[in-house]
C-alpha cells in the first residue's frame, strides 16, 4: 500500500483489491479452495469487514487535506488546473472524483471548500470511514 494516496481507484481496480483481500483472508484462515464457503461466511469467521479499500480511501482523504491546505504545486496537480487542450475521448477519472463520491459530497468544488476547515474535514473522513462497506 506504499504510495496508495496517489492511486485512482476505478470500479475495476476496487474489485481486484477486494478479491486480493479475500484471497489474503482465506490464506490466513487456512481455508482451502475446495471448501465451499461464501465470502460473507469467511468475513464472519474473520470477524472483520472489508477494509483494504476503506483504508486506502481514508489515507487518500487525509493526504488530500494536507495537500489542499498547503497550496503548492501538488495542489495544482491534484485539482488538474493546467493550461492547454484536453485529450480526446473519455476523460480520465481523477482522485478528486472518487473521494467526492466516497465522502458523500456531490461536487468536487464542495470538497475543495470543506478541506480548508481541518476539524470539519476530519469529521467527514471519520463518518465516511464508518459508513463505507
TrEMBL record:
The major lineage groups are: Eukaryota, Metazoa, Spiralia, Lophotrochozoa, Mollusca
Keywords on this record? Endonuclease, Hydrolase, Nuclease
Recorded protein name is: Endonuclease-reverse transcriptase
Q: What GO molecular function annotations does the UniProt record carry, in alphabetical order?
A: endonuclease activity
Amino acid at each position: 500500500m506504499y504510495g496508495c494516496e496517489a492511486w485512482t481507484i476505478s470500479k475495476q481496480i476496487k474489485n481486484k483489491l477486494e478479491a486480493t483481500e479475500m484471497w489474503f483472508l482465506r490464506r490466513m484462515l487456512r481455508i482451502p479452495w475446495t471448501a465451499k464457503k461464501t465470502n460473507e461466511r469467511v468475513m464472519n469467521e474473520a470477524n472483520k469487514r472489508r477494509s483494504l479499500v476503506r483504508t486506502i480511501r481514508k489515507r487518500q482523504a487525509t493526504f488530500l487535506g494536507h495537500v489542499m491546505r498547503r497550496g503548492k504545486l501538488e495542489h495544482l496537480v491534484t485539482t488538474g488546473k493546467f493550461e492547454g487542450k484536453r485529450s480526446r475521448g473519455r476523460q480520465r477519472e481523477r482522485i478528486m472524483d472518487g473521494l467526492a463520491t466516497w465522502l458523500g459530497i456531490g461536487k468536487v468544488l464542495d470538497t475543495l471548500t470543506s478541506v480548508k476547515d481541518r476539524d470539519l474535514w476530519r469529521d467527514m473522513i471519520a463518518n465516511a470511514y464508518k459508513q463505507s462497506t
